[in-house]
Amino acid sequence: MYISTNSLKKYIKNSDKIDWSKVWQDFTIRSAEIDGIEEKGKDIQKVVVAKIEKIQEHNSNKDYNVLELNIGNDNIMVVSTAKNLYEGMIVPCALENGSLKGLDKVSKVELGGILSEGVLASERELGISEKHEGVMDLPKSYEIGADIKKYIPIDDLIIEIDNKSLTNRPDMWGHYGIAREVSAITGNELLDLDLTQEGYGEKKLNITIEDKQNCNRYSGLEISNISEKEANIEMKTMLYYCGMRSISLLVDLTNYLMLELGQPMHAFDSGKVKDINIRSTKENINLVTLDGENREINKGTLMICNGNTPIAIAGIMGGMDSEIEDTTSSLILESANFDATCIRKSATALGLRTEASTRYEKSLDPNMTVIAIKRFVKLLKDVDNNISIDSRIEDVYPNVVEKKTIDLSKDILRKYMGIELESNLVKKILNSLDFEVKEEQDKYVVTAPTYRSTKDITSSADIIEEIARLYGYNNLEEKPLKLDLTIMEGDNMYDLEYIIKKSIAKQTGFSEVHSYIWYQTDLLAKYNIKKQNNIALINKSENNLLRDDISLSLFEYCLNNSKYYNEYGIFEIGSTITREKEERVLSIMSVCMSSNLERKYNSIKAIINKEVATLKNQNIEFVAAMSNKEYLNEEYTLEMRVNDKKIGYISVLSKNLSKDCGKKIDIINAEVNINKLMEVAKTEIVYNEPSKYPTTTIDYTIITDKNEDYIKLEKLLNKYTNKYLIEYFIKDIYTDDKKKITIRYVIGSKEKTLTHEEISRVSKEILSNIESNGYKIVK
Amino acid sequence: MEEKLNKILEDGKKEISNSKDEQALLKLKSIYIGKDSEITKIMKNMKELSIEEKKIVGSLTNKIKNELEKCIKAKIGELSSNVISKKTFDHTLPVTDSKGSLSPVTIVANEVADVLKKMGFIIVSGPEMEDEYRNFEALNVSKDHPARDMQDTYWTDEAKVLRTHTSPVQVRSMEKYGAPLRIAAPGRCFRNEDLDASHENTFFQVEGMVIDKEVSISNLIYVMKNILKEIYKSDVEVRLRPGFFPFVEPGFELDIKCLICNGNGCSRCKNSGWIELCPCGMIHPEVLRMSGIDNTVYSGFAFGIGLTRMAMMKYKINDIRMLNSGDIRSLKQFGIE
Question: A138, A540, A597, A719: which sits with the fewest CB atoms below 10 Å from its CB?
Fold first, then answer.
């Protein structure tokens, strides 16, 4: 929102004593954020009021007029191409070394043998509107030779306030509200608005509010005999500086009132409107709005109707049919208050946010409607004193907003501020904002004005904010927190995830990625992966299925990365979501040349095992298992278990997928469910003293089929236990037409040195366990 | 005889020292001192010699045999040590392993979490899909607040939301731990936005919350300043200005003096000299009440820091979409710490 400092000054006493370039810093930290400050009029210099004394044709160029101009103390010659000139016309003229918008320096130039000593200006060249058809025709009353800025407020400081920071301040959506804040900040008194209190007519207007829930108040006034058609230049300049366009006297006045008070107003042609009825439409309708658009309006939208005929969308935009035209001399003025949510929803549904709807959305004060009408009349009379006010101010006010009264405990105020504030200071601050304060023993009874009672002030914390911000957050002392030394246990999830991520990145050299929580729908379709019961987002048109499988998201990234790299890896710890639960899952994708598959697979397997072994002091059990993911190669799938609980898997993607990353490429995929891992208790380390007695090692080389997975043999070997068998491990694997696996057994006891007989009994049992199950031993 | 023996010693020594490998040595060993060697023959035939001769030849043969054995052993040692020190591979190839990388957001989040832990905050997590109550209602976001609209929030077919901020973790923590409380919650959030260089629908925040007796705005300012000082490793100048968030009152926007232009105005701070960094405020009494904390006894403050934006500032990333691109050409630059 743009604010004209010139306009603000009118509402503040001794406004010249305020440093207007500095006050906005205070305003930013006390009231609302300033997006920018623009100094207007700097580029308009040495422009004077001049009178065209004589117009002559140029003797060599038909497009040129040669003008003799009276600039007060002198007469000068100016050559101009403008078409709207006449003798006796009063015009703005930029003199030598002066400047205009788009013309940095005026100098004397010779045009076809005649020295032109100045440049005449249009409104656009003065920077006060977009109008540039011809030179500005100034009133005859302007003193010839005077600086144009004496009559037109070209110099101004325009402040852009961040609308977002006014979301909760309905009272600050107009200049008067901003002036009230400036007055509270600077201590300069806020002046009352000039209103027309008397001279209203007797006529009653027919106004009915059918939808009382959504229309809080509707005030109207009928005025006729309006003959003036244009607003004065001062008002027009202000409108332009504040981002609006001058249209006609009546439209400009309603816009000006909105900029001044924040109260949107609408003028209907009174010839076209008889019975005003505010109600919600019972069916979908169409209405041509005054911007010429034919709009479809949903059932339930709040409308202003003439009898039964909708003529305006309440709080958003008027209709074309009832619009005031240039010929309109009588009108019905609407100054109303609508429910904020109702207007926001209508505006959103229509895709039409206007200056009016933006303001109504903030919960405006209904008590402004009548004030705005009285102010409108005052401003209209200033321009056109012959108007006739035909009706009384018709006012239907079903939902009266009262001032809110709130108790503020002195102790809570002290607690929040961290200091004790003098009660006089508290009262002074609140009074400056128009809050009434009654002091009692241990509390203040604070009454907020109605324009703060619609939304923003609801509790004592809101009153504290008012006091604290005007006291100045920068004036508060910084105080360290007193530490409560109670030790608290967090859920550790963040730490666990970070430790794992860091370690995986370090050990694998892979890159962490962040993928979206929804599936790429076309990826699922491409690989014919069916997702039946996933949660869907209802307001996202594509890619709206929440993922229950993070690895698919990572595969999508592989498709892209494989354009640039042969071998690489990515990983993520992210959420997977199903109808039953949300879980945190680590997924790793290791993309490699098929020739390196065995080495890479084993390295990922080892890294994950090392990770779990580090965190939990126990090894993962890798078990051959079926996976429920159709895109994995079952032959390579191993389930990871700790304490018999599944915590993840490692596998290789089926060629159907990995082929799209390259011809001789394979992709290893591993997942660890972080929630399940977290549930695994860490095994305590109990120190186990090494045996003092000698141990014996025995090697057996077992022959298996070349293609048999070791896991089958391992199962068998694990079956045999004996208190003298300390451990066994693979010593060597040699493959020719058979696989020959050498297992080393370590046999011993903590209590004694084993006898030859004891050792040979154990070794015989081991041997028979192997041989009785059909395996042969290399003798 | 003596001459003969000395000749054997001389020849043996020469051949041993000239031999090239272990196999050759073993052969020499059998020729010179093996079963069929000259020396063994001489020793076998000793009994045919006189006592006098026996004495001389006996000691000489023994001496020669010992010496040759020694030579062979030494030569074997020499040869095997040569084998080990012999170069078998090219040790000058460049290192090819990549160093691995974490997301810049993870790196920044960890820096912030470390600072908060030092200040006594515990780190907690919450789900990315939240119920409406904890994402909105319990945070004092009214039923008709625009944030609840479809154009701002992702709603699921079960009427849940993808959390729009990490603040629901505040609610979960108050429910779980009660007061006093000092928590921080980093996490991922979602808003219904169209993507461009500076807008993402998926981004990271960290949320902090302190609840205790006698917590004041002065404490908030102190804590925030110190957090930022630690994070930015310099004395940053901060200012608070009014900001509106339903779950805090008073609510603030915390700005830091622009670190690039030092407050003089530049393109990064849009010529204002300040950068909006972190919304914060005193926890709204209603928020405390709804989560079962006695707001007449306890007060507190909360703050949120945009981790995604912080990472962008730190690494001068000018297109936010890179962070969720999964493109390792970009991501692998970031390292681990």
Answer: A719
